[in-house]
């Protein structure tokens, strides 16, 4: 395995730090969010990270891992070197990231939720998914998080916020002023956007 380089990048959520790798952990467009150790059964890497007593949430995307700390009093300056060294050693040693490929799981889950009762709703849902994938998700990933489409029903889009977005003080503002405005402008049927996964 070639040498892995990792740098830490601050996110808008002061409790979350994004660790960017020069190698891929997942295919583009797929990400996983583990709010606790129990949820991380499919990821040996995330389980190891939860072994650090200050790690409260782990989010894994194409080429980065976002760690959210559970102890606000601990400074990132103390934690970054330890986490960066752990991730570097783990990935260089070829440690398993996942037991089951999350891409297959997510495709099945999205197909199940996108099965809207009416064809019209299904077409609107597809427009919303395309907009989120092309315009919103790249920006959210820059900040160490992710947004996924959950459902569309009678003008209301439900999305799921993951990674640094969960618990971020500015997540609600971003959701309402940024994402909701974009979707309402591009898809007139959309009346509002609500999010799951925001823990304030």
TrEMBL record:
It comes from the Bacteria. SUPFAM superfamilies: Fe-S cluster assembly (FSCA) domain-like, Hypothetical protein SAV1430. SMART domains: Nfu_N (SM00932). This is Thioredoxin. Belongs to the NifU family. Pfam families: Nfu_N, NifU. Residues 6-94 form the Scaffold protein Nfu/NifU N-terminal domain. One of its GO terms (biological process) is iron-sulfur cluster assembly.
């Amino acid at each position: 395995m070639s040498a892995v380089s990792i740098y830490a990048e601050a996110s808008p959520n002061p409790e979350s730090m994004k660790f960017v790798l020069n190698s891929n952990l997942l295919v583009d467009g797929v990400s996983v969010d583990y709010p606790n150790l129990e949820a991380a059964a499919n990821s040996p890497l995330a389980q190891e990270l939860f072994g650090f007593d200050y790690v409260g949430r782990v989010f894994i995307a194409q080429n980065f891992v976002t760690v959210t700390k559970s102890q606000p009093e601990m400074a990132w300056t103390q934690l970054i070197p330890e986490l960066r060294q752990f991730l570097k050693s783990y990935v260089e040693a070829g440690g398993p990231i996942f037991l089951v490929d999350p891409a297959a799981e997510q495709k099945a889950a999205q197909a199940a939720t996108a099965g809207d009762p009416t064809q019209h709703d299904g077409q609107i849902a597809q427009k919303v998914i395309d907009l989120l994938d092309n315009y919103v998700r790249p920006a959210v990933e820059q900040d160490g998080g992710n947004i996924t489409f959950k459902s569309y029903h009678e003008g209301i889009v439900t999305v799921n916020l993951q990674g640094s977005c969960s618990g971020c003080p500015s997540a609600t503002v971003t959701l309402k002023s940024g994402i909701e405005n974009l979707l309402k402008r591009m898809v007139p049927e959309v009346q509002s956007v609500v999010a799951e996964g925001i823990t304030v």
